[in-house]
Specification:
The protein has 312 residues and is an alpha+beta fold. It has two domains: 158 residues, Butyryl-CoA Dehydrogenase, subunit A, domain 3 (Up-down Bundle); 134 residues, Nuclear Transport Factor 2, Chain: A (Roll). The protein contains eleven helices and seven strands. Helix 2 runs parallel beside helix 4, helix 3 packs antiparallel against helix 4 and helix 8 crosses helix 9.
């Protein structure tokens, strides 16, 4: 994974190695690249401050994990009101992952980094999310987790069992292999690229859902769209617009899943498309068009996807 954390002078080489881990925890907790970067930066600043004040930090890993997790919990609690008033479906900020990763690495990312998984985490309270992620994804011991979240080991075990049950209930029953996902995604995106959209419907699950995250800024959707026929019509409409405006697409692995970046005729980023594939069909299509969630990708953002406030 790309190291998105902000560097702090004087951390030492040993601590530098902890940055990717801290970002991985913060991003999965928050679903936001910029917020995760801020949390990790603050953690390293506190570690540096403790060192300058003469405090002996026996385990930088434990110190940073504790600070990162507690800051993320506090941030999530303050973000609850903003999430409740968010316009349309909320999706995490997308992360571009390697297009040719190690298969085992991609499988691991797809399981714990996918947009569908991060959305499932929204069903957990901040403390539940922390306990679940630290145990399930990062393999921390219950004794470590208890120290981090300031609860007893027995309580952490109970929290984990409840959280895992809720997450498992939302996961698909039949997972697709990496090869199956890639083959189906290639068929889908080849059809889109060539404008041969008539066969898209056969690639969709009967109960497929389309999420369009515009956040009231981009041209998203107020509610998810459910069902093969409705989603197919929506895709046909969107894709015809992209071809009309000479848009282009760049295939990427997004959060370990097949996706594309759509660009307008000037090469400015319009949105990010991600496919959720299981059971041999596309179960969900997620479109992130909220420009605030795309800035971190480093491309100029297109006006095509923005809502024109002046037009009424």
């Amino acid at each position: 994974m790309t190291d998105h954390a902000v560097s702090t002078p004087g951390d030492g080489e040993a601590c530098e190695d902890l940055r990717p881990l801290m970002f991985s925890i913060a991003y999965r907790m928050l679903g936001s690249v910029s917020d995760a970067e801020d949390v990790v930066q603050e953690g390293f600043l506190r570690l540096r401050r403790a060192s300058m004040e003469g405090t002996v930090v026996e385990s930088p890993r434990a110190f940073l994990t504790t600070v990162t997790t507690r800051l993320a919990i506090d941030h999530l609690r303050s973000a609850r009101v903003r999430r409740e008033t968010y316009v349309g479906p909320w999706l995490p900020e997308p992360l571009l992952t390697s297009t040719e990763p190690d298969p085992g690495e991609l499988a691991e990312m797809s399981d714990s980094l996918s947009l569908s998984f991060l959305v499932l985490l929204e069903n957990l309270s901040p403390a539940e999310r922390a306990v679940f992620l630290l145990r399930e994804v990062f393999d921390y011991g219950y004794d470590e987790i208890a120290e981090i979240v300031d609860k007893s080991e027995a309580n952490c075990r109970q929290i984990f069992v409840r959280a895992r049950k809720r997450i498992d209930e939302g996961r698909p029953r039949f997972q697709a292999t990496l090869q199956q996902r890639q083959e189906l995604a290639n068929r889908f995106f080849d059809a889109v690229d060539k404008g041969e959209l008539g066969g898209l419907v056969e690639l969709l699950a009967e109960d497929v859902v389309f999420y369009g995250d515009g956040g009231g800024i981009g041209r998203g959707l107020p509610q998810p769209v459910y069902g093969r026929d409705k989603v197919n019509r929506l895709l046909l409409s969107f894709m015809s617009q992209y071809h009309e405006y000479n848009a282009s697409m760049q295939r990427e692995n997004v959060n370990g899943e097949p996706g594309v970046l759509f660009f307008d005729s000037r090469g400015h980023l319009v949105n990010v498309f991600v496919l959720d594939i299981s059971g041999g069909v596309i179960q969900a299509v997620r479109s992130i068009i909220n420009p605030d969630k795309l800035v971190h990708l480093g491309y100029p953002i297109s006006d095509f996807g923005r809502i024109d406030r002046g037009s009424g």
